[in-house]
Design goal:
Distance between the termini: 167 Å
Helix content: 10-25%
Oligomer: single chain
Order of helices and strands: HHHEEEEEEEEEEEEEEE
Shape: rod-shaped
Number of strands: 15
Length: about 425
């Protein structure tokens, strides 16, 4: 093919392409996509539930409407902002909050738990504060157990006198240690000493009870109230009393009709009355004047402390029907009614005013009422009794009776064993 012919064809093709129809366009632009309204939720339709826009009828009111402005001069659409009542919008938000959390029943449960926690906290704080106030008001800075006269004490006395008028046979009434006090006897070997081991327990800062230690040879009692007399005076003292069964063992033939060699006589309505002074000092046994007042109620070795003040103990029995009640070892009655008397039998112990040898009956501030009743164990003793009637009194001598208490301390048993 000739070169000229190819160039001619190319020009012809270009002329044909330029002859295609021309598409006419104007200067206007398409409308813009409207922006999402701030009141619309993602994924939710624009139309809200009918229940939200449940408007109440109001006379002369206009129906709410949304106004969509016309296109601007440049052909774009402005953002549409529906005019919605704020009250209904808030209601919508509340219902959506409830729906997201599972409904009203969950809200009620949460509310109940919160109220219960508040009530429990209030009750707990009230009870705790009340208990704290109560405990602080009853707290004593000094323990009651360390205040005198509380504590464990050894009370040493001497048998100062005795009477046997309640029986026609003086030997039926005997008083431990069976020997009257005599100033001629050396204090270290005084056979008239009777020692008591008692415990005083505080109940309040001003009231106390007293108990004996376990001892089968001594009068036994427990938790008897102490009565205070003459408080805050030099004569201040405590008293207490109780009833017991006093017993005496008689060796030999007691009555002409008796065939037994040993007889036990019981005095079933004996009254034991005790006075404990708290300021007046004792003068028996020797050296008692130098004993310090026990503060903690215990001795220097942790045992029983010495009671340095005056003590008076009285055991008395009035005569009458059935006094004394004497029995042989088999339990048979001895003497019938021939052993009774109309007077009073008594054992009198004290630890003061003994130096002059006086043996008259000591006075006591004890009351006559009986606080409690207890008995004593009657031990079988082998004694050698020598009785002599002198000025209406009877004296007997025998070996010393000793016992061992639970504390492991050897002690002399007072009368009544």
């Amino acid at each position: 093919m000739a070169p000229g012919s190819a160039a001619a064809r190319s020009r012809a093709s270009l002329a044909a392409a330029q002859a295609m129809p021309i598409i006419a366009e104007d200067d206007s632009v398409p409308p813009a996509v409207p922006k999402r309204s701030a009141s619309r939720r993602a994924g939710k339709p624009l139309t809200t539930p009918a229940t939200v826009f449940n408007y109440n009828y109001m006379p002369n009111s206009r129906t709410p409407s949304s106004t969509i402005p016309s296109s601007s001069s440049d052909g774009t659409m402005p953002d549409r902002k529906p005019e919605v009542n704020n009250h209904h919008l808030e209601a919508l938000r509340k219902q959506e909050w409830v729906a997201r959390r599972g409904g009203w029943y969950k809200i009620m449960i949460i509310t109940f738990l919160v109220v219960a926690a508040i009530i429990g906290l209030a009750v707990g704080l009230t009870l705790g504060l009340r208990k704290e106030n109560s405990s602080s008001s009853t707290t004593d800075p000094t323990p009651l157990s360390t205040l005198f006269p509380a504590g464990n004490y050894t009370l040493s006395t001497a048998l100062s006198s005795l009477t046997t008028s309640c029986s026609s046979s003086p030997q039926t009434w005997r008083c431990y240690p069976y020997t009257l006090y005599s100033p001629s006897l050396a204090p270290s070997s005084n056979a008239s000493t009777a020692t008591f081991f008692w415990t005083i327990t505080p109940k309040t800062s001003w009231s106390y009870t007293i108990s004996s230690t376990p001892n089968p040879f001594a009068p036994s009692f427990a938790d008897i109230p102490l009565t205070l007399h003459d408080p805050n005076q030099y004569t201040e003292h405590f008293t207490f009393n109780f009833s017991l069964r006093h017993s005496s063992v008689v060796e030999g033939q007691l009555a002409p009709s008796s065939t037994t060699a040993t007889t036990t006589c019981w005095f079933n309505s004996t009254v034991m009355a005790v006075t404990l002074w708290t300021r007046m000092r004792a003068d028996f046994p020797a050296g008692i004047e130098g004993v310090n007042v026990p503060v903690g109620g215990t001795g220097s070795d942790g045992g029983f402390a010495t009671w340095p003040f005056r003590v008076e103990v009285r055991q008395t029995q009035l005569g009458g029907e059935g006094v004394p009640d004497c029995r042989d070892p088999a339990g048979g009655k001895v003497g019938g009614g021939d052993l009774g008397g109309d007077g009073e039998c008594g054992c009198f112990y004290r630890n003061y005013e003994l130096g002059d040898g006086r043996s008259g009956n000591a006075t006591t501030g004890a009351t006559n009422s009986v606080v409690s009743t207890t008995g004593t164990a009657a031990g079988t003793r082998s004694t050698s009794v020598t009785s002599a009637k002198t000025s209406g009194t009877s004296s007997a001598s025998s070996g010393r009776v000793t016992g061992r208490a639970s504390s492991g301390v050897s002690r002399i048993a007072p009368v009544g064993g």
